[in-house]
Amino acid sequence: MKKIEMVDLKGQYKEIEQEIRKSLNQVLHSTQFIKGPDVSEFERDLEKYLGVNNAIACGSGTDALQIALMSLELNPGEEIITTDFTFAATIEVILLLGLKPILVDIDPKTFNIDPNKVKEALTKKTKAIIPVHLFGQISNMDEILNIAKENKLFIIEDNAQSMGSTYTFLNGEKKKAGTIGDIGTTSFFPSKNLGAYGDGGAIFTDNNEFADRIRAISNHGMYKRYYHDLLGVNSRLDSLQAAILKVKLKYLDSYNQKRQNAANEYNNALKNHENIITPFHNISRSSHVYHQYTIRVTNSDRDKLAEHLSGDNIPYGIYYPLPLHKQKAYHNDSYIEDNFKVTNKMVNEVISLPMHSELDENQIDYISSSIKSFFKNK
Questions:
Q1: By the 8 A CB rule, do 200 and 182 touch?
Q2: Are 228 and 68 in contact (CB under 8 A)?
Q3: Angle at the Cα of 340 (from 335 to 341), degrees rounded to 5?
Q4: What value does the mean pLDDT take over residues 183-187?
Q5: Pairwise CA distance, residues 24 & 362, whole Å
Q6: CA–CA dist 101, 83 (Å, integer)
């Protein structure tokens, strides 16, 4: 059995090596490394894949969130509601822009933001909601859209972990993750379902006015070269990364299908175990693209299981060991622990198993057997 990786980028690269080399060589020979044709072509490919009017590539997923917020032209101190259970970038950009993050609890099944908690957090200063489609499954967007419409709020989707997932509305309409709210953002960090070979990100919107502003902000606030109409940043996807992502986008659905197949094998191996809760998937509402395969260990043995997996040379991840409201950098005396009961429970129970498009049955069987042997012998 080959070595188990948390994410097997080498194995994935071997399958597309010649296409990647050809695409990179074209950029190298053109020497158009910044804002070259490959970036524009990749943006058009993204628009077609997602069914969205505008896709604007940028330097990272964090930049995408910041630029999206900047484009809304909010005032300092205005409030953005988002989830307590996510990566730091989501709250980081809110604070950097002088806005006020309002963290709320999550749904214990999906790990995504709880719409009921969003309703409870609304104030006159609330201007936007940032749902994070965590681990590969889309948030309850019917409810979130209703809340936003009733309260005249913007929605920015943090789609760093669910690229390629599809949401089915109650009326049967379908949309890709990142194209449901006013603006969607994503990350092309190498480990993502659609990953570059370095940093990268993108912003999506059907609103052409937002798109024009986003393009200017991401390029030093310029609509016209050397004329700076907006306060902007320098955040551009370079042509080499675009050339790589152009190739990989063609395989995204295939990669996601392989992740789904691996998740089904894990589910079959670990189902009905008294100490394990396998990932919930709301099949009727959202396809799950399993950026992470995250189980819950229900008997306070999560950390011991982690040690056991390490002993069997099985990598794992704990996403996330400390909620945002407890992070030193984001300390706020107004946070009340009773408002984060689910998140506080999840950080002690979750553990993510190896998940990528190169996993094979033997590896999944070995990982699952290791987990079951841990509980059997404890």
A1: no
A2: no
A3: 140
A4: 98
A5: 34
A6: 9
Assess contact for 361 and 329: CB atoms under 8 A. no
Exposure letters 228-263 (e unless 16+ CB within 10 A, then b):
eeeebbebbbbbbbbbbbbbbbebbeebbebbbebb
- Asked whether residue 245 falls in the same domain as residue 256, the answer is no
Q: Is the pLDDT of residue 146 over 90?
A: yes
Token match 């984060």: residue? 340
Count structural domains, the chain: 2
The answer as to whether 4 is a domain residue is no
Task: Express each pLDDT in 22-48 by its tens digit.
Answer: 999 999 999 999 999 999 999 999 999
Helix (H) / strand (E) containing 344: helix 341-346
Q: What is the pLDDT of residues 98-140, one digit of tens each?
A: 999 999 999 999 999 999 999 999 999 999 999 999 999 999 9
Q: What would the DSSP string read from start to end of 74-115?
A: PPTT-EEEEESSS-THHHHHHHHTT-EEEEE-B-TTT-SB-H
Q: What is the pLDDT of residue 299?
A: 85
Q: How far apart, in Å, are the Cα atoms of 367 and each of 2, 128, 261?
A: 13, 41, 15
Mean pLDDT confidence for 138-150 = 98
Query: Own/partner pairs for 141-149, CB < 8 Å, 24+ apart?
Result: 141/167, 141/169, 141/180, 141/181, 142/169, 142/170, 143/115, 144/113, 144/115, 144/118, 144/181, 145/180, 145/181, 147/115, 147/118, 147/119, 147/122, 148/181
Q: Residue 3 domain-assigned? A: no
Of 182, 214, 249, which residue sits at a domain end?
249
Cα gap 80→68, rounded to integer Å: 13
pLDDT at 17: 98
Residue 86 carries which side chain, given as an amino acid letter?
A: T
CATH number at residue 352: 3.90.1150.10
Q: Provide the residue range defining the domain that includes 153.
A: 9-249
Give the span between the Cα atoms of 120 and 102, in whole angstroms. 11
Residues 285 and 242 in one domain: no
